[in-house]
Amino acid sequence: MKKKPVSVYAEITDENAVKLASDGNSEAFSYLYEQNVKRIYNYIYYRIGSEQDAEDLTARVFHRAFGRIGSYEEKGVPFSAWLYRIAHNLIANWHRDNFRRREVSLEDQIDFPHHGDLPERMVERNQEKEMLLKAIRNLSPDRQQLILLKYLEDLSNAEIAVIMRRTEGAIKSLYHRSLLALREELEKNEKYHVVEK
Amino acid sequence: MRFGEVNMTDGIDQFNINNLWGLEDRLSNVLRPVTPDPVFVDSLKYRLSRTPTVLLEQSKKHFGLAAILIGLLAGLLGYWIYRKIQK
């Protein structure tokens, strides 16, 4: 009688995956990869605005994590916090190496379909989106990280505090200052566009 | 403060809060998760599963040294056979 194939992840759970991966279990690392690849890609994509570079940096994050997982120590912090930290550092290096920041072109944008929209309305939406993303990327790295974690990951201040190694109160205050700075950036850009027209 | 009076400071704060809330709505609309290319996701997973945890790089020097030693031994053996035949 043939045995029913057992999933490779049958014994790997959220709780033991990190321990198994740090002991050299490659299936456990694959499990962690699948759990985190989308969020790390999203984080990088919105920080740098290019699909190709986001793929390249995402690959580097996981290669680095794979190479260092043996020395990873669990401190009650989610594994994703460690990955975000690696991503954060690699993005900083990327910005340093790409002195001239790349602007996101309309072609690079991922369009969210708005069925029934007139072409002018779609262009308007894209312009608004481009302006907002540009303003976000002009914020300090910490502020960008906070906004992206809050809106992309839908994390609470307490969860973000763990990832960013700050207190919940500090995150709350940083969030408020980030919104104020973002509004200032948008006002600057809007004025610039009015003058340009 | 009596009914009908307007507290200017509160008014400004309220304006700021409403404005920031508007900004939050804009952020929610724009910052939506994107899906990475599945081909990229699968190929990276494959590459990671094929990467050994410790990379043992074999030195090319060893290959060179072995080739020289084999050459020398073959030469000595040939010379020894030649001397035997001569005798």
Description of the structure:
The complex is a heterodimer of chains A (197) and B (87). With 197 residues, chain A is mainly α. Chain A folds into two domains: 12-105, Rna Polymerase Sigma Factor, Chain: A (Orthogonal Bundle); 116-197, Winged helix-like DNA-binding domain superfamily/Winged helix DNA-binding domain (Arc Repressor Mutant, subunit A, Orthogonal Bundle). Chain A has helices at 17-22, 26-48, 51-68, 79-97, 119-137, 141-152, 157-164, 168-196. In chain A, helix 5 crosses helix 8 (168-196) and helix 6 (141-152) packs across helix 8. Chain B has helices spanning 8-30, 38-50, 60-86. Chain B has 87 residues and is mainly α. Chain B has a domain at 10-37. The chains are: A mainly alpha (197), B mainly alpha (87). The A-B interface holds A 24, 26, 29-30, 33-34, 37-39, 41-42, 45-46, 51, 54-55, 58-59, 62-63, 66-67, 70, 110, 112, 128-129, 132-133, 147-148, 151-152, 176, 179-180, 182-183, 186 and B 19-20, 23-24, 26-28, 30-37, 40-41, 44-45, 47-49, 51, 53.
The biggest beta sheet of chain A is recorded as: none
* Domain module count of chain A: 2
CATH architecture of the largest domain in chain A: Orthogonal Bundle
Return Rg of chain B in Å: 40 Å
Stretches of chain B where pLDDT falls below 50 for ≥5 residues? 1-12
Mean pLDDT figure of chain A? 81
N-end to C-end Cα span of chain B? 128 Å
Are there runs of chain A of 5+ residues with pLDDT below 50, and where?
Answer: 1-6, 103-114
Mean pLDDT of chain B equals: 76
Helix/strand order of chain A, N-terminal first: HHHHHHHH
Number of H- or I-type helical stretches of chain A: 8
- The helix-and-strand class of chain A reads mainly alpha
| CATH topology grouping of the largest domain in chain A | Rna Polymerase Sigma Factor, Chain: A
Number of strands of chain B: 0
Series of secondary-structure elements of chain B, N-terminal to C-terminal: HHH
Q: What is the CA-based Rg of chain A, rounded?
A: 20 Å
Number of helices of chain B: 3
Name the CATH class of the largest domain in chain A. Answer: Mainly Alpha
Largest sheet of chain B: none
Helix content of chain A: 55-70%
